[in-house]
User: Fold this.
Amino acid sequence: MRIDAVDFYYLAMPEVLDIGDGSQDALLVRVQAGEYVGWGECEAAPLVSIASLVCPMSHSACKPVRDSVLGQTLDDISDIYRIGALVRANSLDLLQAEHTLSGIDIALWDLLGKKLQAPVFQLLGYANAYPKLPYASQLFGDTPAQTLALAQQVRAAGFKAAKFGWGPYGLGSVSDDAAHVYAAREGLGADGILLIDAGTVWIDDVAKAQARLAALQACRVTWLEEPFVSGALKSYAALSQSAAPVKLAGGEGCHTFYMAQHMIDYAGLGYVQIDTGRIGGISIAHQVAQYAQRNNVTYVNHTFTSNLALSASLQPYAGIENDIICEYPVALKQLAWDMTHEHLLPDSAGLIHIPTGVGLGITPNLEGITPYVVDCDIQVAGKSVYRTPALRA
Amino acid sequence: MRIDAVDFYYLAMPEVLDIGDGSQDALLVRVQAGEYVGWGECEAAPLVSIASLVCPMSHSACKPVRDSVLGQTLDDISDIYRIGALVRANSLDLLQAEHTLSGIDIALWDLLGKKLQAPVFQLLGYANAYPKLPYASQLFGDTPAQTLALAQQVRAAGFKAAKFGWGPYGLGSVSDDAAHVYAAREGLGADGILLIDAGTVWIDDVAKAQARLAALQACRVTWLEEPFVSGALKSYAALSQSAAPVKLAGGEGCHTFYMAQHMIDYAGLGYVQIDTGRIGGISIAHQVAQYAQRNNVTYVNHTFTSNLALSASLQPYAGIENDIICEYPVALKQLAWDMTHEHLLPDSAGLIHIPTGVGLGITPNLEGITPYVVDCDIQVAGKSVYRTPALRA
Assistant:
């Protein structure tokens, strides 16, 4: 087959709020080859990734992403890896390209799964997809009382694990922050798995993070996520020395295999969190999962958009039985819910099952999506280089 | 003062060729505050950086770059650092933002230099700007004979150092590649400083690079640049073990301080090459120069566009006397030449002097630029979010 079309759709809620909720917009990717269609999703900043798909060439190592994808042969998984390498070489100096490639790579795996009549995890070499234990991913409340109420809700909804992050955490005093962590533990109950996400708030300041450790240890927090930005390896490594039994988690900001490798090699992580929609897609995320396993670091998906993105984020470690925790956004905006026909819901034991249908096992709901399409039109030197394509042929 | 306007201008040659020449287009940045105007340049992919300046917000950590700059106070250098930190926090999930910030940061330094009546290097704390020894930055010829002729031209033009890169190097056989290196050495003469740039051609394959070392050592090459992509730290470290006396150079792909820090800490580099137009501007490049000096790694600018970008690229290490080598593009496209009133030319001793005028000491030639302006128009949901602004008030 040849890749005949690569189309990007910018979707958004009618109003996008200034809160840490990534399900307020989405960039849906459709790839067509022969009679097959595959779907994927790029994480964040839809307009910027659209521009990187279609921008004029700057020089031989700064070409638009589409030029390395359209017209390429796609018959087996080696073609997906080859196309990824081509994009990385031809768009070496185009920073946004890795995010853009991510959604395309996901769509290529979905498409190939449909052609080969297999779920993506099987194409990746996994015989089985093991169920995952979802943690409810939540923003902190504005006050400890709100955090307590949110944790009680999560518990009442049947979740055995919950992550609280962003909001006021890390910005106030050490005792304010502690109050939120104690409230989360109280609401979740003594037996729940409690995870805390600092959202890079201390940048690379080890002392600020260290001051919060006592409360995290007292509340038996399983991991402290992103105390620092992704590259602050030395700060991570220093903090990891005194954090036990709390482990450090990070890596969602990685947009290459190498960045994830550095987090595993040098940061003293217990958990590496990979966003399939940023790191270069399922291909690179799977490479990281394998590397993490060899280095005794637990792999966790990072995702906060639709169930299509969620399925894509689970495939890379579907067959790694011990890496059981998965991120599961519980407060999706309506857009993210309406985007897909199928939804991944916890079973009666509270576990998430990775779809066993062909490809990603999740199909976009074109009717559901239509109201959210954001029409874009980009003109360069009087010529249209992008206009939102029709959702249906 | 308050920052009143941030304007981006996409400039390009009438025809952009599929060659490794980054001077074929440019993204010029103008920042206005009170009665002052500062100019900067972002490296590569103008349309994508424009999109990241103006895109709609995705969520609280994925905002358009302009939102963190417009309206900010700008009175002293602490404001520049504060604005940079704000962009990095508010656009954490917007990958392109670091490239976009780079041109803005450069313009802020230029503007503040004009207000404080000082060259940028003095604002950075350097008492003096030491002259630099420019190496002529050249593409390899298609054949060794062409490479020989190019090296002879460079020598005839008075350059004591030259770098050959890209083109066929690394793609052919080991002996083909050796022939190019021998030709470059012959043309440059026995006393010239010869530098070779592999342009990331071997990705992370140490064996392919090692096979080329004998010719590099025999031809007394000072550095081998970018045998691998920026993040392939282990490959760099492994190659550095057997490369002496050839040193490794790399880092142009770094777009954060941390990435450069990792190259210095873990890659066994002799030279770290920083593109001020990518890494976050003069602020971060200067931070890297200081870190490199403390760690006995030599800092070198990376630049291949206009003399405005060249001046910006030299400021971060202007006062480090021992780090004398500088990249100097000798085959600028007409656009890059026409962009500025002033030009940085080697003196009779072959040295480049960093401008001592206020700010960057280089001013854009608005008349010269006009023919190269690429008009862009970006509409989102029926509303214009970007239209190329007028060059003159």
Q: What stands out?
A: Chain B has two domains: 3-119+365-387, 123-338.
